[in-house]
Amino acid sequence: GYVRLLSPGRRPYATRDGYLCALVYNDAQWRRFLRAIERDDLLGDARFAGEFFIRKGIGWALRERSDAAPEEVQAFCREYAWQLAPLTVREAMKAIRRRTRSKTDG
Questions:
Q1: Is the pTM of this model over 0.70?
Q2: C-alpha distances in Å from residue 27, one per residue of 40, 55, 57, 91, 99
Q3: Which residues make beta-bridge pairs with 15?
Q4: Could you give the CA distance from residue 24 to residue 69 in angstroms, rounded to a whole number?
Q5: CB 96 within 8 A of CB 73
Q6: How far is the C-alpha of 57 from the C-alpha of 87, rounded, in Å?
């Protein structure tokens, strides 16, 4: 199946009175979303600027790949570290770090 659809992070968020789901993919959509939720104060926040979700999505794809080939993902992140956003590397390495911690803890 389509990997992003199967991702556990791509699910509606349960709230007290139902569910919330926001699929924001680019800067224009992000700006509209922030205005809709009345968080204009975040419009200039560097954490969410410059195609934030594209960088995060690249990290998600690398993280999915790390299930089958963790060494490949680590090598890719090392080789292209100068080009990858820190957010991308952080997302890419999440599962690898989690697996490493569980091996040392257990």
A1: no
A2: 14, 12, 13, 19, 33
A3: 18
A4: 29
A5: yes
A6: 10
